[in-house]
Write a structure and sequence with these properties.
30 strands
Length: about 575
């Protein structure tokens, strides 16, 4: 085996990151150094703001079409103003500040300001209501809220705050008639563009971010990350999304979710690339394609849900020639969608896998040949294994849980643990490994193939069946838009397989179509993998981040069966 030769990463990242690539340019090793005091706001944004003040950091398109070109100097100046403003309001190091700002450009000023102060940022979606805010305020011990004036967000915050007395500040981006709220846009103008660093600069292993998990099976957990999390996203941007310093990257996600920070901030600016933000309220695929065409987007990332819509459109109507790379993550991508998109555009979707608790963990990196239906290979950033329930490592092509070796400590990008929840942390980090709760198998060439969540695996007639494999076959049917495979009670098998299906608009779900689908199952699936029940629905239950909630379908069906027995 050849010695690995490490070299500094390109540009500003080279001070903190060294990498090694093979003859094909595929990343095979990465290391982090001089990161004990690393603070992204000071060490990346402010440095770029001084060295390349006029370089584009973000092209922001407001919901009304207003265009804003925000440079790195702008980001430095306005985050300084915001930091001085927050300090004036009493927000200090260690305080926990919730950001409910959709895709407003002020989100970037605010989160950078919090990084400079040493306060912990908590991104949150604007879809939350009273009970959601109430739970989050108490669970995270929130000290302040910065939220959009759009919709009823502030009203829901007010309702939740009646049962929580910990808020020292309520700040709104936009105007409001509600009493007791500060006006971010107006007030920030009064503060200096110079910010005096704290005597003890926050960074390194200090807490920087807290994400509420999507909560597919229980109340959301709070994944806490250090300042090194930002460095952990260098691989995300450079080798997976393949951003270019002279290009512009577009990730769809709302700022309320970790995926936004995968694609709208840390890794991209470590690569000195600009990000594109479209502050839309409703998703219209044609608008997204128009943006790509108009603004010459070079790299694009979206969840599989978006690609499932795009493959049913006439993409020839749009000039997508500026795109050099497209990626997806959030849930597994069906190979049929991959193939359809490739046939329509000639572009291969580079799938990636990670969690709120991690950065990019398994992926198709630059120089790799993606295999339709595969998540890719483990990122060199992590020591990824496939593990049996007894703690031993699986053989090739044997399904097990995806785990990360942490015997030498938590690598950059992996969470600190669940905030104030030692028991839940110990449930996933034990005996030298972080347990993801996702299952897969590894083929002979090191590619991982997703099977499902540990709790999603169906045990029928003595067989263990992963839902994703069956969903992949169902997605081959041209009239299927989305589907979810779950278990239902069966008196003979113990569990039977059910397919819940969303059809394309022009197709009607009836008994004749079910018979047609059953014929397809008989031809393409082993007998123990065939769905015994088919249900047509208008939409699938999803988390607010867009992941299909199989657990909700399963729990409803099992609960209905229990009622029958009674």
């Amino acid at each position: 085996m050849k010695d690995v030769i490490m070299q500094p990463a390109e540009g500003i990242a080279g001070k903190y990151i060294s990498v090694s690539t093979d003859e094909q340019g595929v990343l095979n090793a990465i290391s982090f150094h001089d990161d004990e005091h690393f603070n992204f706001a000071y060490d990346v944004v402010d440095v770029l703001g001084k060295k390349q003040p006029d370089k584009l950091a973000m092209l922001h398109i407001a919901n009304d079409g207003t265009e804003r070109r925000i440079t790195f100097k702008d980001m430095m100046v306005y985050s300084n103003k915001a930091a001085n403003y927050f300090r004036f309001l009493g927000i200090k190091r260690g305080d926990r500040v919730m950001l409910v700002l959709k895709r407003h450009y002020q989100f970037w000023f605010a989160i950078l300001a919090l990084h400079k102060i040493g306060a912990v940022a908590i991104p949150a979606t604007n879809l939350l209501v009273k009970k959601d805010f109430e739970y989050r305020f108490k669970a995270a011990k929130v000290d302040a809220v910065i939220c959009t004036a759009d919709g009823k967000v502030a009203v829901e915050v007010e309702r939740a705050a009646k049962n929580y007395d910990g808020l020292k500040a309520k700040i709104m981006v936009g105007s409001s008639t509600l009493r007791g709220w500060r006006n971010f846009n107006r007030d920030m103008k009064c503060f200096s563009s110079q910010f005096k660093k704290p005597s003890l600069v926050p960074g390194g292993n200090d807490p920087m971010l807290m994400f509420f998990t999507s909560g597919t099976t229980s109340y959301p957990k709070i994944a806490e990350h250090t300042y090194k999390y930002a460095l952990g996203h260098y691989v995300t941007a450079k080798y997976w999304q393949q951003v270019q310093s002279d290009g512009i990257h577009f990730t769809i996600s709302d700022t309320g979710w970790g995926k936004a920070l995968w694609g709208k901030l840390y890794g991209q600016w470590l690569c000195e690339a600009a990000v594109f933000t479209y502050d839309f309220d409703e998703f219209y695929a044609n608008h997204i394609l128009e943006m790509i065409e108009k603004y010459k987007i070079t790299t694009f990332c979206a969840p599989p849900t978006v690609y499932r819509v795009l493959v049913h459109m006439n993409l020839d109507k749009f000039d997508l020639s500026s795109l050099t790379n497209v990626t997806t993550a959030g849930e597994a991508l069906n190979p049929e969608i991959y193939e359809k998109f490739y046939r329509k555009t000639g572009m291969r979707i580079m799938e990636g896998f990670g969690q709120t608790e991690t950065t990019l963990t398994v992926c198709n990196l630059q120089g790799m040949q993606p295999r339709p239906g595969s998540m890719g290979k483990p990122s060199p950033q992590y020591d990824v294994q496939i593990m049996r329930p007894d703690g031993s490592i699986c053989d090739e092509r044997e399904t097990g849980e995806i785990v990360i070796n942490v015997k030498k400590g938590m690598p950059a990008g992996l969470f600190m643990g669940y905030y104030l929840d030692e028991k839940r942390t110990e449930n996933v980090v034990y005996e030298g490994y972080y347990h993801t709760g996702d299952t897969a198998y590894m083929d002979d060439d090191g590619y991982l193939w997703y099977v499902g969540r540990v709790d999603d695996v169906i045990k029928s007639t003595g067989y263990r069946v992963g839902p994703f494999e069956i969903e992949n076959e169902i997605m081959k049917l041209p009239y299927v838009l989305e589907c979810a495979v779950t278990s239902v009670p069966d008196p003979i098998r113990g569990q039977a397989i059910k397919a819940t299906v969303v059809l394309t608009d022009e197709v009607e779900g009836d008994d004749a179509l079910k018979k047609q689908m059953n014929r397809f199952f008989k031809q393409n699936l082993a007998s123990y993998k065939r769905p015994k029940l088919i249900e047509f629905v208008k939409e699938l239950p999803k988390t607010v981040s867009g992941k299909i909630r199989r657990v909700e379908i399963k729990e409803r069906d099992w609960a209905q069966d229990e009622k029958k027995d009674k």
